[in-house]
Amino acid sequence: MEPVSIIGLLVFFVLLVMGVPIAFCMLLVGFFGLAQVIGFLPALASAKTIMYHSIANWLYVCVPMFILMGHFANSSGIIKDIFNFFNVWFGRLPGALAIVTIATSAIFAFATGSSLAATAVLGKITLPEMDRFNYSRKLSLGSIVAGGSLGNLIPPSIGLVLFGIITDQSIGRLLLAAIFPGLIVSMLFIIMITVRVWRNPELVPGSSVSKRSWREKWYSFKGVWGVFVLIILVLGSIFAGVATVTEAASVGAFGSFLILLFRGKFSWKSLWETLGETSRTTAMIFLLIASVSLFTRFLTFSGFTRNLGHLIVTSGNVPPELILVAVYILFLVSGCLMDATSLMLVLTPIVFPIILKIGFDPIWFGVMTVIMIEIGFMTPPVGLCVYVLKSVSDASLVDIFRSIFPFVVMWLVGVAVMTLFPEIVLFLPRIMVGP
Q: Within a 10 A sphere around the Cβ of 217, how many other Cβ atoms?
């Protein structure tokens, strides 16, 4: 393996440890590494072309549109109505409020694609409710963090969009591929909560709600029907091939804005703040995409990616499944040390060519990558959802981290199921109409 690539990676990690933003780490190492391989002037010319073409694609308009859609949905306060809707319908189940928290998170994820936003809002709405009915913090805190962690997997997922851009895979197929996995993990959470409460009723000593009439149940649709229509329009149009991902994202953003208007939550000040926040987030993501494209080109030109893949494929009779497990472990360990975006940008360019060489489906692996990153949203010391919940509640970090263990186990069960049965992930993309 070329020494320049090894030196470049070492410099990259040193800069990262020193606290240099990841985009600038990749820019510096990518450019100067490329200059070392092909010369300074050719590297300068290549960097300009590579970085421009990495983001000069109309398809990537879906990034700000999905972000805008999430901000409008969050500002409209729909999560409270979603919570009330599920509470009315499923409020008599064991551990009802914890189950309702998971269900609310899943539906809210379809409208926002943001784990952190879901955790923050759920922490403000559902934790006081569970405290009111004396729910054990071992259950309530864990259910909020676990529910929030679904946000970056269930489409529209910015994580999947980034994976598609980095690896040049169909973003539409990636988004559809994540629907069943997201719902399956949600069901695993709900089953686990039900079993825990059945075995230990002291976790939920209070009765959350009384029996609701059918009139109340049907009336509960009033606050959420627009969200369900919006989800069907966005994902349904992608699946049917009626709209591209960009067009569907634009419809979603506009629909989310209409919900904001109809609910009477619109203000010019909030609109300005939303547009500003969307612009800042989009600029950050596009800078990261441009940086990772230059960094990836350096790894390719230096021979690192090719040689690493060749080394793994030809290094004896190592089963592909064992290599996959090693990749999973790498993501899990790294997820304890890096935030989600950094983790994807650093590891995907390195491990994706290996996964292709040993014969795994790229769409399936994209979903599994985001799942492993989602687990990182929960695990210490860099569990962002945990810190968000801490910021909006009186819970201690120790209590929150202790509460998430059963949910992390369910995430890992989901990983095992979707690894053994990849068709769960690939079914919808294979019958999707269009590219």
A: 12
- DSSP per-residue string spanning 160-198: HHHHHHHHT--HHHHHHHTHHHHHHHHHHHHHHHHHHHH
Q: What ranges do the domains of the chain cover?
A: 58-266+302-431
At position 75, the amino acid (one-letter code) is S
pLDDT tens-digit series, residues 360-418: 999 999 999 999 888 877 777 667 778 778 877 888 888 888 898 999 999 999 999 99
Residue 334's closest CA among 358, 321, 351? 351
Q: Are 251 and 243 a contacting pair, CB within 8 Å?
A: yes
CA distances for 82 relative to 103, 143, 216, 261, 416, angstroms: 9, 16, 14, 18, 30
Which residues lie below 8 Å from residue 326, measured CB to CB, with a gap of 6+? Answer: none
pTM: 0.81
Output DSSP code: residue 210: P
Using CB atoms within 10 Å of the CB of residue 357, give its burial: 0 to 12 exposed, 13 to 18 middle, 19+ buried: middle
- Alpha-carbon gap, residue 282 to 295, rounded angstroms: 20
Distance CA 321, CA 317 (A): 11
Alpha carbons 141 and 378: distance in angstroms, whole number: 11
